[in-house]
Write a sequence for this structure.
């Protein structure tokens, strides 16, 4: 079974193209984290929110990543970090062409 991690938080920016350039190294480093299969980056500049949706091989990998990532965000001064872990229903998700 695979696990989805959803994370979001308030952030003043950067967003869009500037975000892509500023966080490219971070994006590369996420690929080396244990159990990460993929990440979709999310942003809402108008609401000053950012985050991501990740797919992990195990619940333990998702939990460890959330703990590490929350500490990293807090070191940047970001607070009110929301993280949720969900089991993925692969059979139904595949019907809807989910990349799992």
């Amino acid at each position: 079974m695979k696990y989805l991690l959803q994370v979001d938080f308030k952030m003043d920016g950067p967003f869009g193209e500037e975000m892509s350039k500023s966080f490219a190294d971070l994006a590369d480093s996420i690929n080396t984290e244990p159990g990460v299969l993929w990440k979709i980056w999310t942003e809402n500049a108008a609401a000053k929110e950012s985050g991501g949706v990740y797919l992990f091989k195990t619940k333990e990998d998702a939990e460890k990543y959330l703990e590490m990532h929350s500490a990293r965000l807090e070191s940047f001064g970001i607070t009110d970090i929301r993280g949720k872990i969900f089991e993925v229903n692969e059979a139904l998700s595949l019907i809807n062409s989910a990349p799992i």
